[in-house]
Amino acid sequence: MQLLPEPVRRLAAWCAVILLVSGVVYIGIRLGMALRPAVIPVLLALLGTALLLPLHRWLVRMKVHRSLAAALTCAAVLGAVGGAVYVVTIALVDTWDQIVASLRRGVRDLADQFGASGTSLEELADQAASVLGRFGGTAASGVVSGVSWAVQALGMAVLALLLVFFFLRDSDRATGTLRSLVPHDNADAVEAMARRAFESVEGFMRGTTVVALIDAVCITAGLLILGVPGALGLGALVFIGAYVPYLGAFTSGAVAVLVALADRGLVIALWALGVVLVVQMLEGNIFQPMVQSRTVRIHPAVVLVALTAGASVAGVMGVLLAVPVTAAAFGVGRELRARYASPPGPAPAGPATGPSADA
């Protein structure tokens, strides 16, 4: 090995480190996939704790007992999420037939407008509407066949909620517990990395909440102006969907446009679509870069790569967890660089002063 030049030895060392880290990460991912019913609730609980910890701390400062404060925090979140899902579900169920009829009527109007009435365009519209009309039965049969998956998802959600309660209640003891699990010599470094990782996740959740609130307020205001029914519930769905990058915005926007189509017709639905697209463009180009640059400091290209990797590994759940996990990894990396990066060497000394000619 000593026969190799120094740059080659450094490259070989870095390659060995990269291979070792990649192997550990791969094994961790495989174990996580095998233990998905237990791992996903833990990760979701950590995200929920990072989001709800400020509210819990405020309640504790108001002299509320820690257990009661944790229970009130979980109950508030459960009520908000459950209420929004209930309102949106009822709106979709009540207006589904109207959505299909409005879609059929709108496409026929377009066919008449462009002089294509009675042609294959109109036939295509009828077929599309009939497919949408049969969607309810297809979805129902899918739900029946996927009862086991639904039960598993419900169990994971209940477990995540219980873990959020315990994490909030015992958050003051997390540092001591972590230090007791690692060797004493490395306790300070592990604690610092854990703090930096949690701060990164907390910053991501805080930034996402601000962006989600801006999106929800803007879209709700637009839907109220257009007279779309259930605008407040749809705005709540937009707020919740913002925590799932890209997919959540698409789903919540599509629901808002469908409700507008069913109740107000094609023109108002197109206006609602325009409102959603404008808000999403403002979010992607102004709101999110401005907020997330101060809380997470992750380049958008890294976010896209992380989302792609998360989707390929764990589907929708991977999309939800990809950016927080990446933020935590970046936080740990910054802490390691701050701790172990070699400091710059001392400035080279000036030229030595020779003996005086008078000596």
UniProtKB/TrEMBL annotation:
<feature type="transmembrane region" description="Helical">
    <location>
        <begin position="234"/>
        <end position="259"/>
    </location>
</feature>
<feature type="transmembrane region" description="Helical">
    <location>
        <begin position="68"/>
        <end position="93"/>
    </location>
</feature>
<feature type="transmembrane region" description="Helical">
    <location>
        <begin position="38"/>
        <end position="56"/>
    </location>
</feature>
<keyword id="KW-0472">Membrane</keyword>
<feature type="transmembrane region" description="Helical">
    <location>
        <begin position="12"/>
        <end position="32"/>
    </location>
</feature>
<keyword id="KW-1133">Transmembrane helix</keyword>
<keyword id="KW-1003">Cell membrane</keyword>
<feature type="transmembrane region" description="Helical">
    <location>
        <begin position="149"/>
        <end position="168"/>
    </location>
</feature>
<comment type="similarity">
    <text>Belongs to the autoinducer-2 exporter (AI-2E) (TC 2.A.86) family.</text>
</comment>
<keyword id="KW-0813">Transport</keyword>
<feature type="transmembrane region" description="Helical">
    <location>
        <begin position="203"/>
        <end position="228"/>
    </location>
</feature>
<keyword id="KW-0812">Transmembrane</keyword>
<dbReference type="GO" id="GO:0005886">
    <property type="term" value="C:plasma membrane"/>
</dbReference>
<dbReference type="Pfam" id="PF01594">
    <property type="entry name" value="AI-2E_transport"/>
</dbReference>
<feature type="transmembrane region" description="Helical">
    <location>
        <begin position="302"/>
        <end position="330"/>
    </location>
</feature>
<dbReference type="GO" id="GO:0055085">
    <property type="term" value="P:transmembrane transport"/>
</dbReference>
<feature type="transmembrane region" description="Helical">
    <location>
        <begin position="266"/>
        <end position="282"/>
    </location>
</feature>
<dbReference type="InterPro" id="IPR002549">
    <property type="entry name" value="AI-2E-like"/>
</dbReference>
<protein>
    <submittedName>
        <fullName>AI-2E family transporter</fullName>
    </submittedName>
</protein>
